[in-house]
């Protein structure tokens, strides 16, 4: 299984916040696949990707980590 990063692709928190605002729904799915969590990527794609996108942004803003199901 791949190493799970805290933010989008291991870049700084500031740039991750910008990417989350602009491309959050797409990058979230790509990041889950990159981390090796195919089920989470499919779950995000099929159900409520926009709700999880908001959770990603809030978690990234306050904790510095994106929201992870596992």
Q: Low-confidence runs (pLDDT<50, min 5 residues)?
A: none
Order of helices and strands: HHH
Sheet-strand content, in percent, reads under 5%
The radius of gyration over CA amounts to 11 Å
Structural class: mainly alpha
The helix tally amounts to 3
Shape by Cα distribution? globular
Helix content: 55-70%
User: How many β strands by DSSP?
Assistant: 0
Q: Can you summarize the main beta sheet?
A: none
Distance between the termini: 13 Å
Name the average pLDDT: 80
Salient structural properties:
single chain; 70 residues; mainly alpha; 3 helices; globular
Structure summarized in a few sentences:
Helix content is 67%, strand content 0%.
What does this protein structure show overall?
With 70 residues, the chain is mainly α. Helices cover 67% and strands 0% of the residues. It contains three helices and no strands. The protein is globular. The two termini are 13 Å apart.
Topology:
Blueprint: H1 13-35, H2 38-46, H3 49-63
């Amino acid at each position: 299984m791949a190493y799970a990063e805290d933010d989008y692709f291991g870049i700084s928190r500031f740039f991750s916040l910008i990417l989350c605002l602009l491309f959050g729904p797409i990058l979230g799915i790509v990041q889950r696949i990159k981390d090796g969590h195919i089920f989470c990527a499919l779950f995000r794609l099929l159900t409520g990707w926009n709700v999880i996108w908001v959770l990603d942004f809030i978690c990234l803003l306050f904790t510095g980590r994106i929201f992870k199901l596992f």
